[in-house]
Each structure stands twice: as structure tokens, then as C-alpha cells.
């Protein structure tokens, strides 16, 4: 049976507390076996900065504009603005780098070719692809009716982060964290001293710690017997995230007298999110003052812990939009996106390995190397939340308003405002009985505001220059700006954009665009423990903060027919 979290603690969480906890234990190395409320927020957050090269070059300010594949995911009324059929493909190359504040150097003197983890990632992927077809055209009130089948990327999760903290006291170790968890929750070993993983992955980390000699147990409870209380601990953490949120839209757009455009899109979203979390500790003693073999027969040298969380899902939504062109040089558009109903499976597993030095006479009879070391390597089973035990949630609804001005036949200026109700993210079903994130979502988050502006100018009849800017503001309520949750969450995003468009002939066009983006995240700890009865017992890792910068280049090749 899955661990039953303290739902009441979530519901009555203090508005003045900087740390949101559903239980006393947390951090990015914890709660990876479930979809946390911070996960649901991360999977729902978007500034809508992806699409074709034309829209990305203009900051995606296309709520009032149209005749672009991105319209299917922004304002489907823009599908009705096509006067010809169109097919386009937009591959994208992305380079992301994350800087972590308050971190020591992860590597010290290690050649780059030998580094196991890196704090940047490069990815080749697809930004947009689709076709639009005119199925009806007349001289009547309904000027034309178009159908579109389009894929657009909605959000991108690719990111690597690294952090390090050197020479920490033994009380701030992962060993202390796992030992405290085992004592608080009353974990038991088998009669023969072994320990099973059981049916609750919440405790698998503590089980791995016991199997690796990080913790131990006797009749009085759990304790640490392989790390002296005066040891110094170097702590290292790295998180690798891969995945994206893409949307396949079946869209219809109608043009009434070239004045009113109406559209609708049925969106099918595809979610992939793969997170690998690494944590490692090395144990040292100043001046080589190691414990004696009599006092401590076994002494830990290091411990490494890796967790893998894979989320995948499919969601459905509906988008409705209308655009008016009261005069030839001005357009105004409005679109509404219903919440996306997402059904999501979860897969989780973990490994831990460690090295122990036998400083005494090896009382447990371990198989030792010639140098006196014993190695442990343990792997959990794979946990799966699938089928009737899958996670089901609703992402925010969104309202988009845009306007655009045409300056002669050479230039366009456009602007969008988007409102997303992140406080309405709703966990509809989970495999954990009684788990409810409704209260915490409403307390922590508020509606998010996104502004997008763009411009296009034809400097030559066949060549256009483009530029834009995207800003997505803080979504955390007052008092929660410095919140520490199980996982880091984006607080704000901004993108500077530029692009170039070329008409090769009457049918073929090529667009290129570049975006430079910055995402700022909430603070985080690799782990922490909070004793609600006595704060003197609190401990945890150092507090870190990430800022990710992204360079995104996209090329669109299109054919009109």
C-alpha cells in the first residue's frame, strides 16, 4: 500500500511558511516516486514560445495574426486566414546551460573528457509541423473554410543541473536523513536482519541505505555506525531532465468576408518527462584522524544514490478563437483554452552503491579486496503507476488576447497578453488514496501573466526581418516567492527573439529564427528534515538556486499549394 501522506498538513499549510511540506522530509532527492504538486506545476508551465520560425522570430505574438501553423495552438481563428494550402516543417536545435548559485565546484581539476556529469545539454528536436487545406471557398458570407492538422511543441523540459557542497558536518548527511526517516516512520527489518523493499516506494531509499551500510538497526532503533560524528562530508548532486510537451491539433478555421475569422482546435497533448537524480557523498577526516578499527570496524568512504522517474501521458483540450479585422490595417483576436485533461503513468526505480573500508577484523565476513574494501551495489524493483493506478490531472485554462497593426504592406507590429490560472491545477485521480493538491495549489500559486510582442518588416519584396520579446511573470503568491518545494519550479521566463524570412518563389519559403531565453527557478535543497515539534532538530543540505539560459535556433521550410 502506498504511503498515506498527511493531507491535513497540506490543506492547512501556513501562508507564512517559506517551505511547503506535506510531511517532514523533502528535497529534490525525495518524493521522486510520486507526482508531486510541484511536478504538476512544472508540467503545466509554458510561455508558448515554440512554433514555426516566423512566429518564434516575432515572439509568438500571433493571437491576432494568423496563416501560420502555430495558430492551431494559440488562436485557431488564424487557420481561417490561409488563402492557399500550406505544408511546413520546423526542426529546432537547442542549447541549454544552467548556473547554480551557492554551489561549490562540482569538479576540481578533472579534465572535461573525464567528467561524468555536465551542466549543459544540446538537443535536436521538432518545433512545429503540419498542413492546412482549403476545403471550401466561395464569394458568399463564408469566404473560405480551412482544415489543419498540426503538431506544435508547447513546452520543453530538457535541462541539466549540478551542485556541490564541500566539508559539511556529519549531521547534515544523507545518512542522517535516512536514519531519521527510518526512526520517524518505524521501519523494521526482517527477523534474519535482511530488509525487503515492500510495496511502498516511499521507503525504498531508506531500504537502500540499510543495504549499503549507510544506516543500521538494533532493538533500540536506527543509528549510524560507519560515519564518525566528526567526519567531514562532501556532497554532490546532479539532475538530468529530458522530455517535452507536444500537441497535435485538428483545427478548423472559417473566414467570413475577410472581416471575421472563427476557429476551433481539438488538441491531443503528448507528454514525456524523464528525470534522473544523482546524489553522492564522500566522507573525510581532517588530518587523517580516522576512527580506530576497534571503535568503528567499518568506515564508509562514499555513497552514491541514483533515482529514475519517468512520466508519460496523453491529454485532451479544446481551443476556441475569434479574430476581427474591422479595418484593413488592424486586427484583434481572442482565444480560450480549456484545461487539458491529462492521464499520466509513472515509472520509478533507484540504485545505491557504496564503498566501505574494513578497519577492524571484518566481523561480518564481507568479501574484501586486497586493500580491505567492501563494495555494495543495490537496485530496487521498478514501480509503475499505470492503468487504473495512473495519475490524472487538469492543467490550467488560458485566455489569450492580441492585437496587430499593419503598416502599409511592408510591416506588422503585434502584441499578445495571456492569462493562465495556475492556481486551478487539479489532481483528479492518483494511486494514493486521499491525496489532494487542491488547497496547496490555491495557496501557493496565482494567475500567471505572459506578454508577447513582435514585429516584421519586409526590407525587400522577398525578404523580411523579424524581432520580438516574450515575458512570463511570477506565478507565486506573496509570501511564497522563496518557497522550497520537492522540486525546483520556474518563477519567470523571458525570451529575446529575431528572425529572417525568405520567399524563394511563389510557392516555397524558408524562415529562420533565434531565441535567447532565461528561466529563473525557486530555491531548492537536495534534502531536508523539519521537526515540527522542535526546530532545533531541523537539518538539511545547503540551499541552491538555478538560472537556465537557452539558445534556440529553428528553421522552417514551407510549401504553399
- Residue share in β-strands: over 45%
Counting DSSP E segments of at least 2 residues, the number of strands comes to 26
Q: Might you state the CATH topology name?
A: Porin
Q: What low-confidence regions span 5 or more consecutive residues with pLDDT below 50? A: 5-23
Largest sheet: 14 strands, antiparallel, barrel
Task: Write a compact overview of the structure shown.
The chain has a single domain (7-560), classed as Outer membrane protein transport protein (OMPP1/FadL/TodX) (Porin, Beta Barrel), CATH 2.40.160. It is 8% helix and 52% strand.
Would you write up a description of this structure?
Mean pLDDT is about 95; it is low at about 5-25. It is elongated and about 95 Å long. The longest helix has 11 residues, at about 175-185. It has a 14-stranded antiparallel barrel with strand order 2-3-4-8-9-10-11-16-17-19-20-21-22-26. The protein is built from six helices and 26 strands. Strand 21 and strand 22 (about 510-520) form a beta hairpin. The protein has about 550 residues and is mainly beta.
How do the strands and helices of this protein lay out in sequence?
Layout lengths: L6 H5 L13 E2 L10 H8 L8 H5 L28 E16 L18 E18 L4 E15 L2 E11 L4 H11 L19 H8 L4 E3 L2 E3 L8 E25 L3 E25 L13 E30 L2 E8 L3 E18 L14 E7 L3 E3 L5 E4 L3 E10 L3 E11 L4 E4 L8 H7 L2 E14 L2 E10 L17 E14 L4 E14 L2 E2 L2 E2 L9 E2 L2 E18 L1
Antiparallel strand pairs: 1-24, 2-3, 2-26, 3-4, 4-8, 5-8, 6-7, 8-9, 9-10, 10-11, 10-12, 11-16, 12-13, 12-14, 12-15, 15-18, 16-17, 17-19, 19-20, 20-21, 21-22, 22-26, 23-26, 24-25
